[in-house]
Amino acid sequence: MPEAALYRRPARWSETGASPSSLYGFASQSPKQRPNSTLQHHRGHPTGQHCPQQWSVLADCLDAFPPQVEGLAQFLCERLQDTPHAIPTQIKTLSKIDHIRGTEVIDPAKLVQAVQKMVVSEPQIAALINWENRVSDAAADTIAQLVNLVPSDKRDTPALVVEIGRLLNALATEAVGASNVGKDRFAAVNEALLPILYDRVSRLRMAAPDERLWKQAIATPGKKADLSDEEAAHLNTMLHVDLDVSAVKPTDRGVVLECPAATLEDAPFREAFGMDTTSFLRDQLSLDPTANVRWILVQIEGICDYAQAQAGPALYVLGVETSAKQMKVSPQAVWQSPILAIENEQRQIFVNYRFCRTFTDALVKANNKHYRLREALTNDLVSRFHSYGARPGIIAFRQASLPKLSSAVAATPPESQDPGGAEQKAKPAENSAHDFTVPHQVD
Q: Where is the composition biased (Polar residues) (predicted)?
């Protein structure tokens, strides 16, 4: 029986000849033709109603035999190899007899309804599509707000493009500085619009019509996930690490570079850091000196300096990436990442704030780029780095007559130390099995 297959559209609309308004697309071939590298035929959404922007229907003359479905899967994988995020995880089928006669859709509304029913039947998938649509709407709203800045009497005239050009130039200039706009115009505008988009996305809440869907998608809210170490590592990596460094420069903020082997030799390392590598691992990171580690440099330039491309060398902090565990509590100068999945192994990054070097582009251009820490994790590292450098210290004396109390008890107000609630208030909060926050560290 011929079938229609549901699959996700590539993010680049030009690949199919579609426009963003073509929410659903169709393609058909004669029974003797096999899928090729282009879609022969594409139409806009048949009903004109709002539907998921990045989902499509590809109608093809497929037999009901599994090899034909596998052939479609292979065709899509080959076609979408430049956009791997668009490769379908799963292919669902609809009866082509029910919806297509020859090359024409019998009832467009019925076909759309069938596709929607198939998607909604799996609420977890439908919830992700719903989130994707809401984010797309937030991006559209950001653009709409920008266009609304153009005076109304110019929006329906050739002056519109001139006014938008002025706005884009103003945004780009204020974001990265006049001298830096020409280096990457897209990045400059993105730097300006991203905070606006982020604010809109961060304020998204469950819409009333979608409440049932999300309740089905998350049937037991708050239930302990019981993540394995491997799952936790992969989730952390997804959130905090960009493994694609093809467009990353060695001086980009958050980039993790290979520490050159020549630097790790005894004499150069002592000259740069005042000790040998064994002492650094043991005394400065609390790691076993014999552990298998990969020496790294992490770029921790200030966010404003980086955005404005300020002249001068960039700041890097020395550290290691390893699967080894610490032998004791770290010094306060040590920052450690959540557990990450790097090269099929669960590893963490350890750096010591006090061991930094500055390098110009020329000095690090040959260094191997391992990956880039995403913004949130980079900001966490940089914030703690500067907090460590700015922490105050005082000389204080304690009266001999006062008992020595723990900081937790000493900080408890007398009125809160009632017999009925003391036990409950003193009980520490229960942490998740995978609390990804950096643990408190002491000198």
A: 16-39
How many residues are present in the chain? 443
What does R_g of the chain's alpha carbons equal in angstroms? 28
Among 326, 372, 383, smallest CA distance to 350 is for 326
- Residues 44/108, Cβ–Cβ less than 8 Å: no
State the average pLDDT over residues 199-218: 91
CA dihedral 123, 125, 131, 134 (to 10 degrees): -90
Q: How far is CA 427 from CA 87, 194, 224, 423, 424, in A?
A: 49, 42, 20, 6, 5
Strands 369-373 and 55-60: unpaired
- If you ran DSSP here, which 8-state letter would residue 391 be given? -
CA distance 162 to 146: 13
Q: How many CB atoms lie within 10 A of CB 368?
A: 12
Helices 159-176 and 123-147, axial angle in degrees (round to 10): 100
Token digits of residue 159 = 């002056």
- Of 188, 187, 196, the residue nearest 143 (C-alpha): 196
Which DSSP string do the residues of 56-79 spell out, in sequence order? Answer: EEEEEB--SSHHHHHHHHHHHHHH
Burial of 317 (0-12, 13-18, 19+ CB in 10 A): buried
In our burial notation (b when 16+ CB lie closer than 10 A, e otherwise), range 128-154 reads ebbeebbeeebeeebeeebeeebeeee
Written as one letter, the residue type at 382 is V
Q: By C-alpha distance, which of 107, 114, 120 is closest to 46?
A: 107
Query: What is the Cα–Cα distance from 242 to 98, expressed in whole angstroms?
Result: 44
Q: How many CB atoms lie within 10 A of CB 40?
A: 11
- How far is the C-alpha of 81 from the C-alpha of 95, rounded, in Å? 28
Q: Which of 329, 352, 326 is nearest to 339 (CA)?
A: 326
Mean pLDDT of 48-73: 50
361 residue type, one letter: D
| Residue from 338, 347, 358 nearest 320 by CA | 347
- Boundaries of every domain in the chain: 3-121, 127-217, 229-390
pLDDT, tens digit, for every residue of 141-198?
999 989 999 988 888 888 899 999 999 999 999 988 888 898 889 999 999 999 999 9
Q: Are 138 and 201 in contact (CB under 8 A)?
A: yes
